[in-house]
Amino acid sequence: MSSVSADDTIVAIATPPGRGGVGVVRLSGPDAGRIAEAIAGSLPTPRIASLRTFHDAEGPIDEGLVVVFPAPRSYTGQTVVEFHGHGSPVALDLLVQRALILGARMAEPGEFTQRAYLNDRLDLATAESVADLIDASSAAAVRAAQRSLTGEFSRRVSAIQMALEHLRIEVEASIDFADEDIELQESAGIRRRLAETAIELADLRAKAAEGRLLTEGLVVALAGRPNAGKSSLLNALTGHDAAIVTAVPGTTRDVLRERVNLGGVPVWLYDTAGLRATEDPVEVEGIQRAKRAIADADHVLYLIDSTDPLACAAADAEIAALNTEAVTAVYTKADLSPVTAVEATLRISTLDRQSLDRLRDTLVRILSVDTVSAGAFSARRRHLDALSNTERYLNAARACADHADTDLLAEELRAAHQALGVITGAVSSEDLLGRIFSTFCIGK
Questions:
Q1: Do 396 and 290 contact (CB within 8 A), yes or no?
Q2: CB of 76 within 8 A of CB of 27?
Q3: Strand pairing report for 50-56 and 218-224
């Protein structure tokens, strides 16, 4: 996206693909008004939707509403025009093609929101919450994204940035004006303010971690021997036949990924290949992929066939070989084995709804899904990384303050301030912006 010009006039369909009652085509840029006038004949009063007929070179295309948002008071900060017509994919495409002939170009993914960021209509964290709101898969995720969209996350980040900036000013003044007896030890409550900032940062990081659960979700890998019931459990938890289930061992060769809603938090379930010794090269590759998925998962459900005495006897050793503490043993096919067959805390049958509910409750507890507070806001992994880096620099600054090392203290505060600026875009790069906005839909 860095190779395109922000001065171009861009066009895109802003509604989802497919047929619908209403379809929206959006224009943004310096020529948006001219192009829209050529299509609609005349433009209505700004911000008042008016009925117009949309034309191309061959005649009328559609009839609908036109809304004009003059610069700079628009979503992108440029002149924006929206055509609200019928949701015919063909009619919408004809409308876009006409705009292209008249001088617009197709928008890149997320380019409307990127322009809003570049024109200071949104900061970077708020811009990302637009995509989070669109992708929200639960009511809790919607509310978290909306809180970020209204700027709550950014305001808290900015408040900490301001505190760090004020601390930097005092510390650097004590260095630059040492001859005038402005000393760090005499500045009012420097250590106390560092400690207060650290507390605020820790609280923000905790809230962001909660928000990441709602935004990105968690990964739970279903692991175990072949025919332990992994694919059957995936189908039962998702409510549809996502995976092929047969009595033939080794049916699953690749990692299957399905998303479910667990306590308002999206959880990705990974159905993996059965773990066993084999010489089949395709199955060997599947097992290697399974091991990578298990290593990357937030939690592992290790499934054991409770009707197989050998599998039950080997379960502890096989679980230990996974080399992770984030694992729960689940004994499957409980409807086919006596209750006393194994001493297990978690026994399920995919045919027994109550046992599946117990498994869901266990996952909620293990994954700490139930700890997500009502005040969480949407956040992403990069936000957590930035907050962690800021926390590390701030802790180093506190150590410097304890030893009255003003030169190093100033440098650590500068690094902390810069690390935090990555979240809102005060410190950014073209590569970062490209990665972020490429995840948006075309019309946003």
A1: no
A2: no
A3: unpaired
Rounded-to-integer distance, Cα 376 and Cα 206, Å? 9
- Using alpha carbons, select from 270, 264, 274, 302 the residue that is nearest to residue 378: 264
**pLDDT of amino acid 436:** 53
Query: For the stretch 251-260, what's the b/e string if a residue is b when 16 or more beta carbons lie within 10 angstroms of its beta carbon?
Result: bbbebbebeb
Non-local (6+) Cβ contacts of 237 within 8 A are: 258, 260, 269, 356, 359, 360
Two tokens at 386? 């930035």
Contact 54, 85 (CB under 8 A): yes
Helix runs in 187-248, H state only: 190-216, 230-238
Is the omega angle on the peptide bond into residue 89 within 30 degrees of 0, that is, cis? no
| Mean pLDDT score of the chain | 85
Residues 166, 301: Cα–Cα separation, whole Å = 49
Alpha-carbon gap, residue 78 to 207, rounded angstroms = 34
Rounded CA separation 289/348 (Å): 26
Q: What is the DSSP letter of 426?
A: S
Residue written as token pair 């970062």: 432
Enumerate residues 6+ apart whose C-beta is below 8 A from 115: 6, 28, 76, 77, 78
Judge whether 131 and 103 are in contact, CB under 8 Å: no
Residue 437 to residue 441: CA distance in whole angstroms:
9
Q: Using the predicted structure, report yes or no on whether residue 181 has a pLDDT greater than 70.
A: no
Domains of the chain: 10-122 (3.30.1360.120), 124-425 (3.40.50.300)
Amino acid at 184: L
- Give the Cα separation of 291 and 30 in Å (integer): 53
The radius of gyration computed from the CA coordinates of the chain, to the nearest angstrom, equals: 28
Give the model confidence (pLDDT) of 159-173 as tens digits. 999 999 888 888 877
Cis peptide before 72 (omega within 30 of 0): yes
In this prediction, residue 182 has a pLDDT band, given cuts at 50, 70 and 90, of very low
Q: Using the predicted structure, report yes or no on whether residue 224 has a pLDDT greater than 50.
A: yes
pLDDT at 177: 56
Alpha carbons 25 and 409: distance in angstroms, whole number: 53
DSSP secondary-structure letter at 347?
A: B
Token readout for 28 is: 């943004």
Q: What is the pLDDT of residues 86-101, one digit of tens each?
A: 999 999 999 999 999 9
Residue 245 pLDDT > 70, yes or no?
yes
Task: Label the pairing between strands 299-305 and 218-224.
Answer: parallel
Residue 183 pLDDT: 53
